[in-house]
Amino acid sequence: MSTVKVRAIVTTGYGTNCEREMAHAVKIGGADRVDIVHLSDILDGSISLKDYQFLNLPGGFLDGDNLGAAQAGAHRLKYAKIKGKEKRLIDEILEFIERGGLILGICNGFQLLVKTGLLPGINGDYTTRLVSLTYNDSGRFEDRWVTLKANPNSPCVFTRGIEYLEVPVRHGEGKFVTLNQDVLKTLESQNHIVFQYVDPKLGEPTQEYPLNPNGSELAIAGITDSTGRIFGLMPHPEAFTHRTNHPRWTRMDLPEEGAGVQIFRNAVSYLRQS
Ligand SMILES: NC(=O)CC[C@H](N)C(=O)O
């Protein structure tokens, strides 16, 4: 039995609103310690990512979605220096990745990962911005349950053993787009695509609304970097930790634990073994 203690950090502040849900999911996923930390405490140097192996970026409305969801937050991450150090937050995150840490960005956290260039992280390039998340085709905030299909060939450590997953989305800017067709082809051929929105009856990716709630290219709901250790997705697995979260729980025979927990359990197991 491995004795590695898994320490997870969940960031908050500046408009984040899913930190408690995410911390709860990480906890029942098996982490030994879960700290909810204000981004300002990292920026002022009082908390360091060095003390953690699992970085969680939750959903919300960072800076009120000003300039586009997570755009202002991405600038802070890339350009604000940590007090008393010559380092920026992004440098601390790059060191964290180098040390083998795991990063999970959900919804606003995913938007933050793509807008900084940390994803798609093709062949270790964590600074070039190649993809984005923009306004839903419907032109409105989408708050509904969707069905996802996992790519069995993706290196993503978070989705091991998952074939399909039902989870909610709640976003205004969830449409996944790429800079050009070459980027999209690379994501596909190098298995960066982790989750796609599917028609639950057919089990295949769909562009049909509302099964695909935002019009994402190739129905993409989540992607990973080349190592499989950085994962971002628009839907919320942390919002399905208990059977009563499911909209049809009174009519279905569901296990006590919600299916979203597996994402967090996989992360913790991976860290225990590494
Ligand atoms: N739930 C979320 O994290 C929402 C993200 C972002 N504010 C959007 O509406 O797209």
From TrEMBL:
Keyword Isomerase attached: no
Q: Which UniProt keywords apply?
A: ATP-binding, Cytoplasm, Glutamine amidotransferase, Hydrolase, Ligase, Nucleotide-binding, Purine biosynthesis, Transferase
Q: Which PROSITE patterns match?
A: GATASE_TYPE_1 (PS51273)
Which InterPro entries would you find in this protein's record?
Class_I_gatase-like, PRibForGlyAmidine_synth_PurQ
One Gene Ontology molecular-function label: hydrolase activity
The UniProt entry, under Pfam families, shows: GATase_5 (PF13507)
UniProt entry tagged with the keyword Lipid biosynthesis: no
One CC-aspect GO term: cytoplasm
Question: Which protein is depicted?
Answer: Phosphoribosylformylglycinamidine synthase, glutamine amidotransferase subunit
Q: Provide the GO biological process annotations.
A: 'de novo' IMP biosynthetic process
Instruction: Quote the PANTHER family the UniProt record gives.
Output: PHOSPHORIBOSYLFORMYLGLYCINAMIDINE SYNTHASE
